[in-house]
Design a protein that fits this description.
By secondary structure, the protein is of the alpha/beta class. It has twelve helices and eight strands. It binds ligand L6N33NVT and fe (ii) ion (2 copies). Keywords: Cytoplasm, Heme biosynthesis, Iron, Lyase, Metal-binding, Porphyrin biosynthesis.
């Protein structure tokens, strides 16, 4: 019988906080046609002609504020998840990053070196997006076809709607919520609106109320719907009134129209509407990273407090919490079982 293994895939971080390493990382990231989805020549002009002239130095400074002795928080946390999961399952577990090292190819190679030929690959993103889930699958398939044609890969699908995940996230938030808060804000990583239209095979999503409808044929590939639905399901579990919740989208880049409302603008306007004590959580990320530890916990906090807010309470991601490791284990085991049916 074929030997099985698990590959946990996350976004990836630069090798170090040196500007040249950040530049190399951003080049690979932003030249991905599923991230900046322009024709190659226009993408290269924008990324290599404009963005990479100034952004690496700025991003390197931001990375320095979150970097740990062991490296980037995102990679350190993903490794902890790997180690904890390895103790619970009897197949090899490795990690791979979509950008930079350890790459998806490195991860698959490590599994193959242990005799594995059937891999469950877990893109660590609760919601589907072209720039994340789809990009990971495309890359893994490219590597598999080129380097490991005999290996079979079974992909774990977005899990934002799964009860086990929602219960886990709701329990984690409940434990960390402060006693008194005026609102709980759900801040998701944004994407350009164009990405949503582009990946909608049904062409029925118009980015209005269709995303919050119970059913719509576009939901399987609508990142906006999946963020709304995650929020709705979590607040139901938490028994929180909808009036006490806010949803927003962070981390926009460039001049395109990204999904609204924007987190930074929201943080600046809500204190004048009576939200003085804020709790904020970032459920597009399962591991804390630059975008949560710096953009939200530091920059976001400053924006909120300077705009009249009084208390800002950041709720960490699931990281290596045992209850989350249990969810990862269950989702992986489901897919491992499927190999027998394929
Ligand atoms: C959670 C899902 C993510 C989506 C969707 C996503 C889309 C997306 N991101 C950029 C540009 C940047 N993102 C950056 C960092 C970053 N992004 C995610 C996740 C998603 N991105 C994570 C987990 C991180 C942190 C990585 C880390 O090392 O901690 C950055 C780099 C940092 C910076 O310079 O600000 C950029 C740039 C685009 C353009 C995009 C969709 C089109
Ligand atoms: Fe991003
Ligand atoms: Fe939608």
């Amino acid at each position: 019988m074929a030997k099985k293994g698990i590959l946990l895939v996350n976004l990836g971080s630069p090798r170090s906080t040196a500007v040249k390493d950040v530049k190399e990382y951003l080049d690979e990231f932003l030249m991905d046609e599923r991230v900046i989805d322009y024709r190659w020549i226009f993408r290269a002009l924008l990324v290599r002609g404009i963005i990479l002239n100034t952004r690496p130095a700025k991003s390197a400074e931001a990375y320095k504020t979150v970097w740990t002795d062991q490296g980037s928080p995102l990679i350190v946390i993903t490794k902890k998840v790997q180690q904890k999961l390895q103790k619970l399952v009897d197949v090899p577990v490795e990690i791979g990053m979509r950008y930079a090292e350890p790459s998806i190819e490195t991860g698959i190679q490590k599994l193959v070196d242990q005799g594995v030929s059937e891999i469950v690959l877990f893109p660590l993103y609760p919601q589907y997006a072209m720039s994340t889930t789809e990009s990971v699958i495309e890359k893994a398939e490219e590597v598999r076809k080129k380097k490991f044609p005999k290996v079979r890969i079974n992909y774990i699908q977005p899990f934002y709607h799964r009860d086990i995940y929602i219960n886990c996230l709701a329990d984690s938030i409940r434990e960390k919520l402060p006693e008194n808060f005026d609102a709980l804000q759900f801040s998701y990583h944004g994407v350009p609106e164009r990405h949503i239209y582009k990946t909608d095979p049904t062409k029925t999503c118009n980015l209005n109320d269709c995303c919050s409808r119970e059913t719509n044929p576009s939901h399987q590939f609508c990142y906006r719907h999946q963020c709304f639905d995650t929020t709705k399901k979590v607040i139901e579990k938490l028994n929180l009134p909808i009036e006490k919740t806010i949803i927003s989208f962070q981390s926009r880049l460039g001049k395109d129209k990204w999904m609204e409302p924007y987190t930074d603008e929201t943080l600046e306007t809500i204190p004048s509407k009576g939200v003085k004590n804020l709790a904020i959580v970032c459920p597009a990320f399962v591991s804390d990273c630059l975008e949560t530890l710096e953009e939200i916990s530091v920059e976001g906090k400053e924006q909120f407090l300077h705009s009249g807010g009084e208390n800002f309470h950041y709720i960490p991601c699931l990281n290596d919490e045992d209850r989350w490791i249990e969810v990862v284990k269950t989702l992986c085991e489901e897919k491992l079982q499927q190999f027998y049916l394929l």
